[in-house]
Design brief:
The complex is a heterodimer. By secondary structure, chain A is of the alpha+beta class. Chain A contains eleven helices and ten strands. In chain A, strand 7 and strand 8 form a beta hairpin. Chain A is globular. A two-stranded antiparallel ribbon of chain B has the order 1-2. Chain B has one domain: 434 Repressor (Amino-terminal Domain), CATH 1.10.260. Chain B is mostly helical. Chain B is elongated and about 70 Å long. In chain B, a hairpin with a 5-residue loop joins strand 1 and strand 2. Classes of the chains: A alpha+beta, B mainly alpha. Chains A and B meet through helix 8, helix 9 and helix 10 of A and strand 1, helix 2 and helix 4 of B.
């Protein structure tokens, strides 16, 4: 927690967060006086998901994502908590930057969608072409902007030129200078109803999409591919593919174990909010699922490290994934029952 | 091990959710071991591929454009969008004999898209 100031001298508190989008959403709401934490925003926005998309490549490997599509958490949270946001995108970079400066001068903080690769303050391990990294701009400073990027511990400075390139970079999921800021926010929103809606939506996304790539089916699909990958692709390529999965699981702003720990934190908060034993139980279960995913990533890391022990094979890693799939299916079926009984 | 430490000591740390002794979730900044390993694998792969292309450029099999495209982690499709040049032309420009004949106006578009200077775009680093 670090206090920063906007252009008109209003205080803005920077919170460290694990994920960019839920962090930005919660920070914008907190700035307007609605105190929701990052896990809460993640749960209300139905952030948890799984998808394995073999036809979409990032750095030459198929995409396997553990969260819902970019932009959905923000959109759903705003819809469920109530509030009016100004959302704009631009074709002309100059117009986009001028508009940003103008809004900042009124003392309003602005959320932006940027390309992770072109942000100047990012270190090498985060550098890859991902078109929707969210951050908050606080105010204009000399030759640049003061930025509160929730995935970093402290606010940082960024050059105007670098920020422009990051906002208007071309490529997959390009942002086109997407920017958003709250106009009005509903004070004292009905958190309980929003939580129930978020939970039900998550259940639908995880177990009711009849396609093999999404939700629990997607986890089973990927598990099968991992088990077969050694024979199909050769050991080196299979290792790299597995490394890419672990990177999606642990690295890309997930808060550990592919958002599962963050979701467990959401259930802890929800259990306090509803005073419900069932939800506390579900939080424990989600923690167990997170631990299983962590086991999978450790097993995969051992395979990658070539610590050739006979007991660590691709089949075992895939097996751990199947266990996760089974547990998650149970979890979301239980949650569906519990969420129906909860009263707003 | 050195590569892992090198890339993880660079820059600000990220946050991870962990349970404290009371079972409450709190934010910490220690990266899990598995993440370090997979990250190091991918970055080592990127660096090795870049080095391979650099050697191919020096041997005259690829154009310097290919090197800078790889450096920015782009594919011909993305570069085509960023530079405003049709994909099949970008693919052609990856051949050194065709790249050598390009007009400055085309090269200028590539320098804009890739954020390199005109002198840099014509060669690759020598060591």
């Amino acid at each position: 927690m670090i206090t920063e100031y906007t252009a008109t001298g209003k205080p803005f508190i920077h919170y460290h967060a694990a994920h960019c989008e839920s962090g930005v959403t919660s920070a914008l709401f907190r700035n307007k006086g609605v105190d929701i934490s990052e896990p809460m925003a993640f749960g209300i926005g139905s952030g948890i998901f799984f998808a394995h998309l073999p036809f979409m490549k990032s750095l030459g490997h198929p995409v396997s994502t553990f969260r819902s599509q970019p932009g959905a958490i923000f959109r759903k949270t705003v819809k469920r908590l109530g509030g009016e946001f100004v959302i704009k995108s631009f074709r002309d970079p100059k117009k986009g930057m001028d508009e940003l400066r103008q809004v900042l001068r009124t003392g309003q903080v602005v959320g932006l969608k940027t390309n992770l690769y072109w942000l100047p303050y990012i270190s090498e391990r985060f550098r890859f072409n991902f078109g929707s990294h969210n951050l908050i701009v606080l105010r204009e400073i000399e030759n640049g902007f003061r930025i509160s990027d929730p995935t970093f511990e402290y606010p940082v400075d960024c050059s105007a030129e670098g920020l422009q390139k990051a906002r208007f970079a071309r490529g997959p999921m390009e942002g086109s200078g997407y920017m958003y800021y709250p106009k009005t926010v509903k004070l004292n929103p009905d958190l309980r109803e929003a939580c129930i809606k978020g939970m039900k939506d998550s259940c639908n996304m995880m177990i009711r999409i009849p396609l093999p790539f999404f939700g629990v089916r997607g986890i089973r699909f990927l598990a099968k591919r991992v088990i077969q990958s050694e024979g199909k692709l050769g050991i080196d390529e299979a290792r790299r593919n597995l490394g890419a999965v672990v990177r999606w699981l642990e690295e890309v702003g997930t808060g550990g174990s592919g958002f599962r720990y963050m979701y467990a934190a959401f259930f802890q908060e929800a259990a306090e909010l509803f005073g419900s034993e069932d939800l506390a139980e579900l939080s424990h279960e989600m923690t167990v699922i997170g631990d299983t995913w962590r086991d999978f990533s450790v097993m995969s890391a051992r395979i990658i490290k070539q610590r050739n022990k006979p007991e660590e094979t691709f089949a075992k890693a895939g097996g751990l994934m199947l266990i996760c799939a089974g547990r998650e299916e149970n979890f979301f079926k239980n949650l569906d029952q519990v969420a129906r009984k909860l009263k707003a | 091990m050195e590569l892992e430490d090198e890339i993880f000591n660079d820059g600000l740390p990220k946050a991870y959710y962990k349970q404290n002794d009371n079972g409450q979730y709190v934010l910490e900044t220690d990266a899990p071991w598995a993440e370090k390993v997979s990250c190091a694998l991918i970055i080592a792969g990127n660096r090795a591929r870049l080095e391979e292309i650099r050697k191919a450029v020096l041997a005259g099999q690829q154009s310097p454009l290919c090197y800078y495209m790889e450096m920015r982690q782009m594919e011909p499709g993305m570069l085509a969008k960023a530079a405003g040049i049709v994909v099949f032309r970008v693919r052609r420009h990856l051949r050194p004999e065709i790249f050598a004949k390009l007009k400055p106006s085309v090269l200028y578009r590539y320098t804009k898209a890739l954020r390199v200077t005109m002198e840099e775009l014509k060669t690759v680093p020598n060591n």
